Amino acid sequence: MPKAIITAAITGSIHTPTMSPYLPITPQQIIDEILAVHEAGGTVCHVHTRDPKTGQPVTDLDSFREIAGTVKSKCDIVLCLTTGGGLGMSAEERVQTVATFSPELASFNAGSVNFALFPAMDKWKDWKYEWEPKYLAMTEDFVFTNTFKTLREFCEFFNKNNTKPELEVYDAGMINNIAHLIQRGYLKKPVYVQFVMGVLGGITPSPENLMFLVDYAKRLIGDFEFSVCVAGRAQFPICTQSLLLGGHVRVGLEDNLYLEKGVMAKSNAEHVAKIIKIARELGIEAATPDEARQLLGLKGLDEVNY
Fold first, then answer.
1. What is the largest CA-CA distance in the chain?
2. What whole-number distance in Å separates Cα of residue 294 and Cα of residue 227?
3. Contact 43, 3 (CB under 8 A)
4. What per-residue confidence (pLDDT) applies to 91?
5. Dist CA 200 CA 270 (whole Å)
6. pLDDT tens digit sequence for 211-223
7. Can you give the residue range of the structural domain that contains 129?
8. pLDDT reading at 86 higher than 80
9. Burial 108-125 (b: 16+ CB within 10 A, else e)
């Protein structure tokens, strides 16, 4: 049977604590969520960290070390550490996860984009923490900056640490950016691309848009592995389309706080169980962590620094 990599994005830097009581905040909560995802059959976990007292997104190396080291001691799931960090962090702050921990896999944002969260403020009036409305409001005038200089420098860190980049594509022009990096020798094929759909400022989620992105990437890049993640209610329909196209999927509370209309997800494991059930109905099995390592050419847990 075909195998699909099932990634869970555990907490991210988009949703705030007021939006869901189930959003994991502390290192221990994040660890527990990762282990539950592994138990549910997930392949990869995408990891951000937060201030354990306020839930604000931070790049805290001690928290990353605690999370990654504890998870490694308990299971073999692949960890994809973020270099996106939190909105407003410098490139130097963001890439420290690769420079410090030399992970098997890490996110690599493939270009700059208006990354807007401010419309979420319309849904909530009472906030648990003061930072939340300020954090969301500042995105009306925010560009998530990933210049060609930054992309080149990030490639150097990834190559030095033999860390596979998960290339996050928010819009079509970023596919051209990836092709440029390959042509210049900064990225090595085969690449792993993740189409990120549904962020205000990026491409909207639709079957037609996903077909276009996949076709455009084939024309510019050639052979590649791809995954799809979707912010919001279109998560499961468009991820299902990715499976039908031979791609992989990302679910989790970073992207979507709901399991179905009107029903909040109580854990990332619920998301994983749902997409695995859908995949099996299509004759597709979830890849094991070791199968993902083989498919993506990852270096293995014996070569990470955590």
1. 50
2. 16
3. no
4. 79
5. 26
6. 999 999 999 999 9
7. 3-303
8. no
9. bbbbbbbbbbbebeeeee
Q: Is 61 exposed, middle or buried (0-12, 13-18, 19+ CB in 10 A)?
A: middle
Amino acid at 178: I
The dihedral of CA 247, 257, 48, 280: what is its sign?
negative
Structure tokens belonging to residue 109: 């944002």
The pLDDT tens digits of the residues spanning 65-77 come to 999 999 999 999 9
The tally of domains found in the chain comes to 1
What count of other Cβ atoms lies within 10 Å of the Cβ of residue 70?
Answer: 18
Please write the tens of the pLDDT for every residue from 175-210.
999 999 999 999 999 999 999 999 999 999 999 999
| Residues sharing a CB contact under 8 Å with residue 25, sequence separation 6 or more, in sequence order | 11, 17, 50, 51, 52, 55
Torsion of CA 197, 87, 268, 34, to 10 degrees: 130
Alpha-carbon gap, residue 236 to 40, rounded angstroms:
17
CATH number at residue 44: 3.20.20.70
Model confidence pLDDT, tens digit, residues 167-176: 999 999 999 9
The tokens of 222 are what? 């050639």
* Per-residue confidence (pLDDT) for residue 218, from 0 to 100: 98
pTM of the model: 0.96
